[in-house]
Amino acid sequence: MKKAAIVVPTYNEAGTIETLIIDIFEQNKKTPNWELHIVVVDSDSEDKTQEIVTNLIKKYPRLHLIKTKKEGLGKAYIEGFTVSIEKLNPYLIFEMDADLSHDPASIPNFLHKIEKGADFVIGSRYIKGGSIPENWGIHRKILSVVGNLIIKVGFMKPRITDWTSGYRAIKSWIVKEASPHIKNYSGYVFQVAFLDYALKKHAIVAETPINFKDRNYGVSKLNSFQTIFQTLLYVFTNSSFVKFVIVGAIGFVIDFGIFYFLTKFAHLVSWKANLISTETAVLSNFMLNNFWSFAHKKVDHNKKSYIKGFFKFNLVSSGNIIIQTVGVEILKALFGIKLLYIYKVAVIVFIVIPYSYFFYNKVIWKHKR
Ligand code: GDD
Ligand code: MN
């Protein structure tokens, strides 16, 4: 029998916590291979949350209560994870809200995905069979949908549909490995940071549909403004794609700057100047991408790997030059010479960027499992 600890953070959830606990233990009857524990992490609730849980512990020996200061959702979860691992050493850890938005009846579906080989199961509101409450205000719907879209594009992971979901099952080894990273995120952004880190560590991620229900008691603690800001900042500073675009822009400046200098002041003929400026930009792009954009999968630290990587990088970059030249010529033939710069930008945005991002990920900095 395997142990799973369901970590439930609470702040003033006296209206629902008892029902939730009873429902979860009820679900355990359907999952005989699993020993479910509940770890409530309460941050100094002003209502009767702690009292209710303390009383229920007498009846349920697998119910545990951790008391913390109010320092945000992320902090509460980290505390819950750490204590669960120390005290229970579970195989699996769940994240779950206390306000009955997350239906305990879905627990067996999560366990099923884990049994089939997943390391990290997301309860998704946005895949077939899942849903968000119909009566959610338009601003909350937009926030959730647009937020997920930005994160999806930023991390170039179109198959993950619900990045911010707070209903998840994660194998303990990932929780342990991720702790030093996610410790830095105390608010709701912690959810995004955790999933991003798991993906970078090659966790097998799966999704199971959930029907997110609106809370009937108490109030949401999510601060939209703060969460939007922190999430955008996280995506911007941690997305390989964003960094890759920045590196590309730096490369452009280097190429252009050196070319300008060599032709204007060093009086080099243009083909020589071009050769030097382009190759310098290619080298700087390779280094910046290797040690920054794709740092989590950088090439092995030895001369041979660097030379091999740099050679492949040059091949992909040559492809870039050909695509740009041919692309601009085709557009010129089709639509005339007037909009030359627009053609160049269009070719870069719609062909060169996707093309090189694809090859960088699949050939030069591919995942080693
Ligand atoms: N211990 C503790 N400390 N618990 C907290 C804190 C805190 O500072 N802040 C929130 N919680 C608890 C709540 O009591 C609840 O059980 C759970 O965390 C989720 O908080 P809600 O306030 O109900 O969040 P929500 O419904 O607006 O947000 C949901 O959607 C988000 C976006 O998809 C949650 O599922 C989030 O996890 C999710 O990121
Ligand atoms: Mn809620």
Q: What is the top-level CATH class of the largest domain?
A: Alpha Beta
**Count of alpha/pi helices:** 12
CATH topology of the largest domain: Spore Coat Polysaccharide Biosynthesis Protein SpsA, Chain A
Average of the residue pLDDT scores: 92
Number of domains: 2
Task: Give the low-pLDDT segments.
Answer: none
What is the architecture of the largest domain at the second tier of CATH? Alpha-Beta Complex
Judged by helices, strands and strand pairing, the structural class is alpha/beta
Strand order of the largest sheet: 3-2-1-4-6-5-7
Q: Rg from C-alpha positions? A: 26 Å
Overall morphology: elongated
Distinct small molecules bound, one entry per kind: guanosine-5'-diphosphate-alpha-D-mannose, manganese (II) ion
* Sheet having the most strands: 7 strands, mixed
Structure summary:
Helices cover 57% and strands 12% of the residues.
